[in-house]
Amino acid sequence: METKLGLRPYYTAQEMVFRIKTATGPVYMRTARTNFLNEERAVVEVDTHRFIELWKREPYSSPRSEAHGTPVSWKADRKFADAVKGFGHGDSNPVPLANISCLMANEKVPVIEKRWGLFKKSVGYAEHTFPYVAFTDGITRTIWLAAHGAPCFPVECHVRDAELLQKEAGTEGSKWMTVDNLIPVSA
User: Fold this and answer.
1) Which residues pair with 43 in a beta bridge?
2) Alpha helices in the chain (DSSP H)
3) Model-level pTM?
4) Rounded to whole angstroms, what are the CA distances from 66 to 46, 119, 136, 155?
5) Is 128 inside any structural domain?
6) Tell me: the pLDDT tens digits for 127-177?
7) Is residue 72 part of a domain?
8) What backbone phi and psi angles, to 5 degrees, belong to 59?
9) Which domain of life is it from (predicted)?
10) What is the Cα–Cα distance from 49 to 150, expressed in whole angstroms?
C-alpha cells in the first residue's frame, strides 16, 4: 500500500495512518484497532478512477448520483465544506476511512429479436451479473479526494468484500489487509 504511513497511539489503542497525495498536497486518513471484529475488517487501497466507475454501477440507492458528478458538482455538495474542514486538520487528526461494501448485483435484461428486418420483439430476459460498491459511510470524503485529484486512497470494508474490491478497483501491486494484520495486538 503506497498510502500507508505508519502506526501511532490512538487513545488507549493504536491507529494506522495513511498519507494520500492530492493536487493540493497530502491529506491524512486513519483506521483504528477496536476491541472487536478486527479480523473481519479489511483495508483496500483503491484506484480513484476505477473505484468511481465501480460506484457508478450501484443499482439501488440515491447517493449513487454523486458518483456521476464532476469536480465542480462535487465541490457544490452541501456537505463538502465538512470534508474541507476534516481534511484541514492534517496529520494531527486524520479523517476516518470510508466504509464501503463491494457486492454483486443481478439485473434482468430484455432479450430483443428482430422480426422481418423491421420489427423488434422481446422474447424473454437474460440475467446480467455485475460488481458495484455502496457506501455505509464516507461519500463526502470520497468525493473530496476525487475532486482534489487523489490517484488512490484506502477504504475499509468487510473481509468478504475485500477480494472482489481488490480485483475490481485495487491499486496495482497492492494487497488488501485485515485491520488485525495491519495493526497487530502487540502494536
Assistant:
1) 156, 177
2) 48-56, 64-67, 71-75, 80-87, 139-147, 159-169, 179-182
3) 0.88
4) 18, 38, 14, 17
5) no
6) 889 999 999 999 999 999 999 999 999 999 999 999 999 999 999 999 999
7) yes
8) -90, -5
9) Bacteria
10) 9
C-beta atoms surrounding 129 within 10 Å: 8
Residue 102: name the closest of 31, 19, 162 by CA: 162
- In one-letter notation, the amino acid at residue 39 is E
What's the number of domains the chain is made of? Answer: 1
In a domain, 121, yes or no: no
Residue 164 has a pLDDT of 98
Does the residue 116 lie in any domain?
no
Residue 90 per-residue DSSP state? G
Q: Give me the sheet containing 4-10, strands edge to edge.
A: 4-10, 13-20, 27-32, 95-96
Cell of 34: 477496536
Distance CA 63, CA 42 (A): 23
Cell of 48: 480513484
pLDDT in tens, 53-112: 999 999 887 666 788 999 999 999 999 999 999 999 999 999 999 999 999 998 887 888
> For residue 46, what is its C-alpha cell?
483503491
